[in-house]
Fold this protein.
Amino acid sequence: TFSLAQNYPNPFNPTTVIRYQLSGVSEVELSAYDLQGRKVRTLVSERQAAGSYQVTFNTEGLSSGVYFYRLEAGGMHAVRKMVLLQYVSYDPNYGSYDNIFVCIKMTQLTSWMMLNELATDCHG
């Protein structure tokens, strides 16, 4: 048996940490998938001893959105959801965060969020 923790931080950009525990020696595969079920990364694929593990997932080259990570070990599997949130970096020469908005679309939830914690309805 094993346990799979929620990644942290979540939402994240550009990296997040995935932790899991194995109760015995197992062939382990930890992979990340997009919403269409396509594997975007294999993070671990090896035989591992009992113990606690953590993997840093670097999302370089991936777009903002909802992703899933799946751990398979000892004939069992578990899946958890994570959100990659890319954002516009701040340049003091071109204004403030007050004018920067990010639209997050997660399945049926859509909302606009201002980076300094104000919110309004999402358009489109």
